[in-house]
Amino acid sequence: MNEIKIYPPGTLGTYDYVVMLSRYQDQFLLSRHKNRTTWEMQGGHIEPGETPEAAAKRELFEESGAISFTLIPLCDYCGEEPGKNNHGAGMVFCADIHELGIMPESEMAETAFFDKFPDNLTYPEITRCIFNAFKTL
To answer: CA dihedral in degrees (86, 3, 90, 67; nearest 10)?
Structure first.
């Protein structure tokens, strides 16, 4: 099991991926991958030459269809497997979605709205850590 560490936004400096804790009309917006039955926050790898914010904008649109939104850095995090030097660094954003369009063709099958996180999460540990960071705002 990976150990997850949360840091203030901008602490890590170099990032591999981004994650968005997305809200629309006072509900969480989660996505479901075509190959899974579980729900997850939007996010993905940062492409070469891409800033974390640009990656967040791209991934949020690709995985939810969000076309108007505000991104606010929430925290940085890394996951480590104890005893190994194989951590990846991520920047987490709060996404306040103002308008949803049609979700483009992607690896995601659908999105859904939740008042609270469901039990069947793809990445339950990191989702709960990010949510706890969000609750402290």
So the answer is: 130
DSSP-H helix ranges across 13-101: 52-64
Work out the number of other CB atoms within 10 angstroms of the CB of residue 135. Answer: 7
As beta bridge partners, residue 17 has 45, 90
Res 36 pLDDT > 90: yes
Which residue reads 């070469």 in tokens? 48
Report the predicted TM-score, pTM, of the whole model to 2 decimal places.
0.90
Q: How far apart are CA 76 and CA 58, in angstroms?
A: 19
Q: Could you read off the pLDDT of 37-50 as tens digits, one per residue?
A: 999 999 999 999 99
Q: Which of 3.90.190.20, 3.30.70.580, 3.20.20.80, 3.90.79.10 is the CATH number of 3-135? A: 3.90.79.10
Residue with tokens 């793809």: 122
